[in-house]
Amino acid sequence: MYLTLLHAGKRSTAKMHLSITFARLKHMLSKAKIKLVQSLVHKKHRDTLGLFTVEGNKSVMELLRSKIHVNSLFATHEWLITQPVSTFANDTQVYEVTPQEMKQLSCLTTPGQVLAVAVIPESVSSIQDSPGHILALDGIQDPGNMGTIIRIADWYGITHVVCSAQCADTYSPKTIQASMGSFLRVTTLRCQLNEFLTECKQPVYGAVLNGKSTYEVNMPEHCVLVIGNEGSGISPDVLPFIKHPLSIPKRGEAESLNAAVATAVLCDNWARQLSSSIKI
User: Which terminus in the chain has less CB density within 10 A, N or C?
Assistant: First the structure.
């Protein structure tokens, strides 16, 4: 460990505060460690090691404040000297890295100042009894869409998302990046979607091309909304469970909407209906 004195700013009190950071004196960055972090871009290695990466100051800071265990953290000197020792758990390995080393570790075109390697949480076994709105994703394959939908769910207070086996990995770096920290607040369950819907007691709505206008349907507070694959929509084995098919009316000539955009429109309409039903 080493101590770094930081001036607190040009204030009349001229106070100083002490920041304790972990440096390379304690944990040397080896080639093996670099290869391990790089390997986590692939799902098979994430599954084998039970680890995933989080990048960017906002997401990493939220991660450090969460209950998810951070295995190791890689940061530049400039980032480390701004953090008090209480930022890190006692068993988190902290590495001070150069910008060039961060480029080797990061999967981003323009790396930030900090990257964390965290332990993948244990999977939940069921969310059947969860209150409120549930999103069910049927074959969302683009990790960017997956992360954005998780972020949308978080925005609208939807705390549970069910993912079919064909969906992009929740802990893919692109999914994590697109979620902007929302993966920490939204519980995901990966399962066979038709089996989940068979046992589901809530009304099931689904986004289709030829359904009833979402603006003419009153969705209840407790329900399931199914969003289909980006190209082919809701799969044939899931379609029979959709008792309330919904569509977003169009006025132009576009063939379809992006899956995440459609999710946002449907969730916003549901949220507005719910808000208008609350008596003030």
Answer: C
